Protein 1
Amino acid sequence: MLRPPAVKAKGLTRHFESRKGFFFSELTRTEALRGVDLEVAPGEIFGLLGPNGAGKTTLTKILSTLLLPSGGRAEVLGLDVTREALRLRPRIGLVLGGERGLYNRVSARENLRYFADLYGVPPEKRAARIDEVLTWVGLADAGDRRVEEFSRGMKQKLHLARGILHEPEMLFLDEPTIGLDPKSARETRKLVRSLVANGVTILLTTHYMFEAEELCQRIAVLSRGKIVARDTIAGLRRLVGGDRTIEVEDYGFEDLEVARLRRLPGVSRLFTEEFGPRLRCTLRVGTGELTEAQIRAALPGHAEMTVRERRTALEDIYLDLVEEEAK
Ligand SMILES: Nc1ncnc2c1ncn2[C@@H]1O[C@H](COP(=O)(O)OP(=O)(O)OP(=O)(O)O)[C@@H](O)[C@H]1O
Ligand SMILES: [Mg+2]
């Protein structure tokens, strides 16, 4: 049988109203999502990127039935997140970053026991499943310790264990490696990959570009409640128009010279940054399009300038897209 898309969202909106000011007399309205369309294929690991306040957590919460949309509609695993939430919940898992949502005074195992009951894990399978997930996240030896004794990384792993306890088909991970040291973050990414290898679909939010680049097949960039780009990493690179990033840096660039660089053939974008008296021009350039010699020839007065080239990283693309949206 053909599996439906894991996520299918159309025109999703969500606003928040809050009161502030003198006697809470001012009503402010935040448009957290302003018409989001999204489709995630079954078995895919899809990345959601975007600056603070872009609406990533709001979107994640709506898709995992924690929050109702103000408008639009969304289906997850073929079920409507609003009307069929009760049927959907047992089939999905949600892991929010940070330390909330665990019971500190009791052991990891007791936490998982509570959530296993909540998620409807059959009692006869419960103990074995808890051992299995504790081992899987590397907490087998810490299962009987109270969570208040846990480090942040251990808590994060317990969150992950909790999220997969009931063997969900789809997992929402909102910044799963936030605050983790490099080793724990790497272990977490490895766990994420092994989930995907087992057929779990994942929607992953992260602020770490390399993480998205390493894990995700496709990525959507959310900015101010709207998706501003959605593609594979290679596709995003093409969209921004430049596999190559060339940085040209020197003292005393004139506006005219910067304009000359911008007009060179193959330059799709140019940004400038000042470092004290030095100016750095960052150029996005397509494959095989512009050489260093051509750049030097265009700026004959700058024999001492440095010209560095690197492959355009996802982080560059992301900044281009978000910057463009903010204009
Ligand atoms: N419960 C709420 N009440 C009022 N405003 C809210 C609420 N939750 C979110 N918002 C607002 O909605 C917008 C989107 O917030 P959201 O948490 O979804 O962003 P985010 O992309 O997850 O950001 P971050 O990267 O910081 O986690 C923000 O302007 C935020 O202040
Ligand atoms: Mg968030």
Protein 2
Amino acid sequence: MELLSNLTLYHPSSVEDAVSLYSAASNGHYLAGGSDFLVNVRRGIEQPDSLIYLNNIAEMQAIKDAGDTITIGGGVILRDLDNSALIQKHFAAVARAAGEVAGPSHREYGTLGGNLCLDTRCVFYNQSEWWRAANNYCLKSRGEICHVAPGGKKCFAAFSGDVAPALLLFDAEVELAGPNGRRRVALADLYRNDGMDHLTLSKDELLVAVHVAKPSAPMASDYEKSRVRGSIDFPLAGVAMRMALHDGKIADLRVGLTGVSPLPFLAGKLDKFIGRAPDQACLEELRDAIRSQAKAMKTTVTPPHYRRRVAGALALKLAQQLAASNS
Ligand SMILES: Cc1cc2nc3c(=O)[nH]c(=O)nc-3n(C[C@H](O)[C@H](O)[C@H](O)COP(=O)(O)OP(=O)(O)OC[C@H]3O[C@@H](n4cnc5c(N)ncnc54)[C@H](O)[C@@H]3O)c2cc1C
Ligand code: SF4
């Protein structure tokens, strides 16, 4: 690990001040819990000269029930998201995913904003400076080739945040603040399929809050992940699912995926399952559909084909559980 260089740490108390401080800094960076970012600084991956600390901004710290919608501040810590009765009631998968991030101590200071804006990960990138230098770096930072797909010019580093796929199930929107004011975009539009540049928000934009409309009818949902160390690890594959049955047939089905591509995404082509009974044959077909869409690359020490199979297996497990809880 590298020593921390000289840094200026700012403590703004409003969103607008945070954005101004960022704009004024020559190489500034937003800092929330720091559970991911500071690791990258110590590895020499990030080299900011100023950090704009976000956790004194009151507006970003609360979970609010606004009737039809719930607003979750970007600075809400994952432990509070996991323990929130409101979130558990309306968006069970979101609470569950928050409770599956890293280990208990990370969830005490890791925030929702940091989780959604997490950098992508790759076994050739999340390494010490000397390790990366010894391998001539890679396309994502300072290098000429991608060690995962050496012939191409694309980075496949995987987005590995747990909470995003669960929020995608519910069409969450994010509120962003920048020098030109505030805007709201669908969470799905916060991401692009490029491991080198996977966030569409500009560098000076701040994620202030997430807004999620409550489903009109109760909706069973859940999240499962596979990881190397069960007590504290990023997902090799993570699957969020929501399902509703009507008269014993699937009436609503969504599946969100993480850890298997540069962006979290909702699986497509699931309409064919609507109207079918969730019997074993149907759910195994769903498993295969998810497996075929989880196009993991060699970005972890665990082989891609295992992560693809595991994504399918997690989907099957979730579908069985949600179908049983619906009936
Ligand atoms: C050992 C270990 C295991 C981990 N396991 C997991 C895991 O299983 N699942 C998982 O999802 N994560 C995991 N993490 C990563 C991290 O702990 C969490 O993702 C956490 O939620 C990050 O939040 P943070 O507030 O600490 O973010 P920070 O580290 O402060 O920030 C992360 C990035 O987001 C940006 N950012 C933060 N807040 C905002 C905002 N409001 N607006 C705009 N940009 C913002 C920062 O500038 C930075 O680029 C792990 C980390 C470690 C060290
Ligand atoms: S996928 Fe390739 S370019 Fe991207 S971080 Fe890994 S080795 Fe680097």
